[in-house]
Predict the 3D structure of the following.
Amino acid sequence: MKTYSLNQLGRYPIYLKLLKEFFDEGVDIVSSPLIAKRLGYSEEQVRKDLQNVASEVGRPKKGREVKQLIEDIETFLGYRDSTSAVIIGVGHLGAALLNFPSFSEMGLEILAGFDTDPKLLWTRVGGKEIFPVAMLKDILPRLNAHIVIIAVPASAAQSVAEQAVASGAKAIWNFAPTHLDLPDNIVVEDVNLASSLAVLSHRLNVALAKEEKK
Amino acid sequence: MKTYSLNQLGRYPIYLKLLKEFFDEGVDIVSSPLIAKRLGYSEEQVRKDLQNVASEVGRPKKGREVKQLIEDIETFLGYRDSTSAVIIGVGHLGAALLNFPSFSEMGLEILAGFDTDPKLLWTRVGGKEIFPVAMLKDILPRLNAHIVIIAVPASAAQSVAEQAVASGAKAIWNFAPTHLDLPDNIVVEDVNLASSLAVLSHRLNVALAKEEKK
DNA sequence: GAATAATCGGTAAAGAAATATGGATAAACT
DNA sequence: AGTTTATCCATATTTCTTTACCGATTATTC
């Protein structure tokens, strides 16, 4: 079975976004070199990535059908059959995620929020009802949501993650700036802004040093 | 000069976070295998990563000094001399970022926000004043901020990014779900939730398939 | 209708990154 | 004090990812 590196997987949504732009502009056919140029990737990488998920072969001198490619990538990424999620932590970040419009495009339905703040409970944020965290184990199994999004402060993250797992969560999308220690069979994906910033800073330093040298 | 892969760079903030937890618990000395176990990394990877930034050699049978290691990583990541940034787009996400407490720990000072919404202008969000985007080219050079954080809708992202670059931005931290096409000498770091979600979904599917097989 | 140019697909090579190995050293234990 | 054990560092190996190459194919041009 073909395996995909995590970097490679992360590129597909980027292709998808660009392809949809092409589609909206009425472009029917795209070639790998064209995509590569737009995204700053190498031609070969794009070609290999697309080969891996395309249902049809490309045509020499032309490329591939935009519409078909969009379908193929969406199918591959699972955007076509939606998964359910809930979010724990409805502070600034959690509210932003609840109001984020693109998740449903990606096949992710956020069904509800959880928090401990009495002011928030039983209200609606982004159209979704907010329940107390203590009710997680009653509500989560009923919602049949596999994915739990964690957007609480770092200090509370491990604890709510454990509650989520105990309530049947299979995957944790962790926005808290801390490492979660969970059983091996639980999928944990970190959105670590500190890591992203570290990469940015380092690249900026390299760039500034290069500029100085000139 | 030693080069660092982007993956490796992203691990340092994670080490740092864990080391600070150890420090708070009064732990003086840590070994690579211990860190590896806590984070789910291999022992060798941790050792190599730490060797690359540590100012002192580790001691057999003991490990390394937590305090020194924290200093070394913070120095390496540039947390010790802070960089300035501004943020464009003060919607849900932008406001969440303006209220995010950890940035100053990471040496990132967000000095101001920019938006086009008249209701927001000249107010304060997260303690930072909000200016009109049109004033970017007047204000940004005066603030001497190299980093511009973009948190506007995808449709506006390319345009504000170009304005930021024209106003002197050297690095763009892009939270908009779109690819930005900017000059090569500008550092662009994307925070792409779609990519992160794609990785999560794929890993979840693999995990669920494995469970089924049992 | 032949020549040219652009793209594809498959395979090979190169390059990076992670992991394993082996000797050395310092602490802990007997 | 000597032996054992845990960890270090340096180097080698393996594995994974990306890039390069090359023949085949099909539009386009003359």
